[in-house]
Amino acid sequence: MTPKIPQIRLWSGLSFVWDRDSLDWRGISAAEITKRVTGKVGSGSIVLFHNAGEHTPEALPDVLRWMKQEGYEIVPISRLLLSGDYTLDHEGRQHAAG
After folding, report:
1. What is the CA radius of gyration of the chain?
2. Could you tell me the pTM of the whole model?
3. What is the secondary structure of 1-33 as a DSSP string?
4. How far is CA 20 from CA 10, 37, 45, 85, in A?
5. Structure letter (DSSP) for residue 82
6. Regions of the chain short of the pLDDT cut 50
Protein backbone atom coordinates (compact mmCIF):
# COMPACT_ATOMS: atom_id res chain seq x y z
CA MET A 1 0.00 0.00 0.00
CA THR A 2 1.40 3.40 -0.96
CA PRO A 3 1.27 5.90 1.91
CA LYS A 4 -0.79 9.01 1.35
CA ILE A 5 1.61 11.92 1.01
CA PRO A 6 0.28 15.49 0.96
CA GLN A 7 1.11 17.25 -2.28
CA ILE A 8 0.95 20.78 -3.56
CA ARG A 9 0.65 21.45 -7.28
CA LEU A 10 1.96 24.84 -8.25
CA TRP A 11 0.71 26.79 -11.24
CA SER A 12 3.88 25.80 -13.07
CA GLY A 13 2.84 22.15 -12.83
CA LEU A 14 5.60 21.35 -10.31
CA SER A 15 4.58 19.15 -7.39
CA PHE A 16 6.29 18.88 -4.04
CA VAL A 17 5.56 17.29 -0.71
CA TRP A 18 6.16 18.38 2.84
CA ASP A 19 7.12 16.05 5.63
CA ARG A 20 6.34 18.27 8.62
CA ASP A 21 3.02 20.08 9.09
CA SER A 22 3.06 22.87 11.67
CA LEU A 23 -0.74 22.58 12.04
CA ASP A 24 -0.70 26.36 12.45
CA TRP A 25 -4.06 26.53 10.65
CA ARG A 26 -5.70 24.93 13.70
CA GLY A 27 -5.13 28.09 15.74
CA ILE A 28 -2.70 26.41 18.14
CA SER A 29 -0.40 28.66 20.16
CA ALA A 30 3.00 29.85 18.97
CA ALA A 31 4.62 27.64 21.63
CA GLU A 32 2.72 24.59 20.34
CA ILE A 33 3.70 25.35 16.74
CA THR A 34 7.35 25.70 17.77
CA LYS A 35 7.29 22.45 19.76
CA ARG A 36 5.57 20.57 16.95
CA VAL A 37 8.04 21.71 14.29
CA THR A 38 11.28 21.52 16.29
CA GLY A 39 10.40 18.12 17.70
CA LYS A 40 10.02 16.51 14.28
CA VAL A 41 12.20 18.38 11.80
CA GLY A 42 15.16 16.61 10.22
CA SER A 43 17.74 17.07 7.50
CA GLY A 44 15.96 17.87 4.24
CA SER A 45 12.62 18.52 5.91
CA ILE A 46 10.05 20.68 4.20
CA VAL A 47 7.88 22.34 6.85
CA LEU A 48 4.39 23.51 5.96
CA PHE A 49 3.21 26.83 7.34
CA HIS A 50 0.08 28.71 6.25
CA ASN A 51 -0.19 32.39 5.37
CA ALA A 52 -3.28 32.79 7.54
CA GLY A 53 -2.00 30.85 10.58
CA GLU A 54 -3.04 33.01 13.52
CA HIS A 55 0.10 32.42 15.60
CA THR A 56 2.56 31.65 12.79
CA PRO A 57 4.19 35.11 12.86
CA GLU A 58 4.86 34.66 16.58
CA ALA A 59 6.27 31.15 16.17
CA LEU A 60 8.57 31.66 13.19
CA PRO A 61 11.36 33.62 14.94
CA ASP A 62 11.71 30.90 17.60
CA VAL A 63 11.50 28.09 15.02
CA LEU A 64 14.13 29.70 12.80
CA ARG A 65 16.41 30.55 15.73
CA TRP A 66 16.24 26.93 16.97
CA MET A 67 16.94 25.54 13.50
CA LYS A 68 19.98 27.77 13.06
CA GLN A 69 21.28 26.88 16.55
CA GLU A 70 20.93 23.19 15.65
CA GLY A 71 22.97 23.73 12.50
CA TYR A 72 20.17 23.66 9.94
CA GLU A 73 20.39 25.86 6.88
CA ILE A 74 17.18 27.57 5.80
CA VAL A 75 16.91 27.36 2.01
CA PRO A 76 14.27 27.98 -0.64
CA ILE A 77 12.31 24.92 -1.63
CA SER A 78 13.87 25.03 -5.09
CA ARG A 79 17.19 23.91 -3.53
CA LEU A 80 15.58 20.86 -1.94
CA LEU A 81 13.67 19.47 -4.88
CA LEU A 82 15.34 16.95 -7.15
CA SER A 83 14.69 17.12 -10.85
CA GLY A 84 14.59 14.12 -13.12
CA ASP A 85 13.93 10.62 -11.83
CA TYR A 86 13.45 10.24 -8.10
CA THR A 87 11.56 8.18 -5.57
CA LEU A 88 9.75 9.21 -2.41
CA ASP A 89 10.26 7.31 0.82
CA HIS A 90 7.60 6.68 3.46
CA GLU A 91 8.28 10.10 5.01
CA GLY A 92 7.89 11.95 1.72
CA ARG A 93 11.61 12.60 1.21
CA GLN A 94 13.03 12.53 -2.31
CA HIS A 95 15.89 10.23 -3.31
CA ALA A 96 17.60 10.16 -6.69
CA ALA A 97 16.45 7.10 -8.66
CA GLY A 98 18.90 4.45 -9.65
Report:
1. 14
2. 0.69
3. -PPP--EEE-TTS-EEE-SEE--GGGT--HHHH
4. 19, 7, 7, 23
5. P
6. 1-5, 8-11
